[in-house]
Amino acid sequence: MRLSPGAAISLFVIAFSLPLVGCATPAPIVRLNPRSADVVWVGGRASVQAEKSGLHVATAFEHQDGRTVGLRLEIENGTDARIEVGPEDVTFTSCVDETVASCAPTHGIIDPEQMLAALDVAQSRGAAEAANSQALLGTLVLLSAVGDVASVAGGHAHASTGLRTAATADLMGSDAAARNSAQETIGLRRQLWSDQALRRNTLDPGQGTAGLVYLPIDLRAGYVWLHVRLAGALFQFRFEQVVTQIAMPSTGAQARRF
Question: pTM of the entire structure?
């Protein structure tokens, strides 16, 4: 069955609006506080550090990013040999309490290269979907305009003549703005994983590197261990996880509705 322009517009509006339907609740705030007898504050960040065999490693909680937390990791090669440093050298373990039995299996951190590849795919698909959407809406604008012209020429114009064309044109503009915003967001995420995340580096003697490492959040965890293995040396840092639940406002029509 062939849809009329008006029906096609209505279906598109419904499909475009479905992701927006729902009741959002505030996500909990998660912080990782280092548990060590030697905590050094740097720029408002509680950092911990360790040195083994000429290798110097320091880390500090940086921020929460959605369902992940980011830790800043700094590594300095004080040995006489060249070493390789990369995300594959960093793992973490989440524990409910301070007992070993409460700990989950150790996992690797989120791989920046996989994230960059996924963002490239999303950006490519988004560009294609935006082009297809604009082509569809452009066709609907033309169909509506042709219908308006026919109504005027046939003497059947009325007060609502032209409104459908204007509404479709407005929808075309808002769709373009929304998709452009989504592409800009992907671009910003790509910049974060490309420029700020810890990626593979070769460190000659005396050189250092720094970057952010991201871990998925486990709200059940009370402690998180960060493990860094470099040139046969193992560095381990313990953080206490503090979760703050954010309550919705208890007054107002919207609060009562939810």
Answer: 0.67
